[in-house]
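Support case: iron/sulfur cluster complex. Customer-provided input:
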Amino acid sequence: MNSQNPSRRRFLIQAVVAAAAIPFVASGVIGTAQAQALKPLPADNAQAVALKFIADATKTKEANFKPGSNCGNCQFFTAATGACTLFPGFSVPAAAWCSAWAKKA
Ligand code: SF4
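Agent response - structure generated as follows:
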């Protein structure tokens, strides 16, 4: 005979699932998995070529390059994921640069 209350059983299952997820959230594994969903921006991407994207900002020869500027201090960059607003679905290195760089506010 099973006298266990179904809502109590559901609560216990949810509590166990939530407790099991805590170490993954705390360690950043879930955040890392989301970051891995972004593919590194290929150098031959048409928009990357048009915007003179370069993986190492210090190696660019572009006239409008401001010393010290890179993706890491660009307003379009999200450090947690490496995402750039201008290249949806791709990640860019913090040390990269392109001609659309704009100082982070
Ligand atoms: S817009 Fe900014 S973050 Fe995106 S690639 Fe260019 S410099 Fe990097």
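The longest helix spans residues 6-27.

Case will auto-close in a few days if no follow-up is received.
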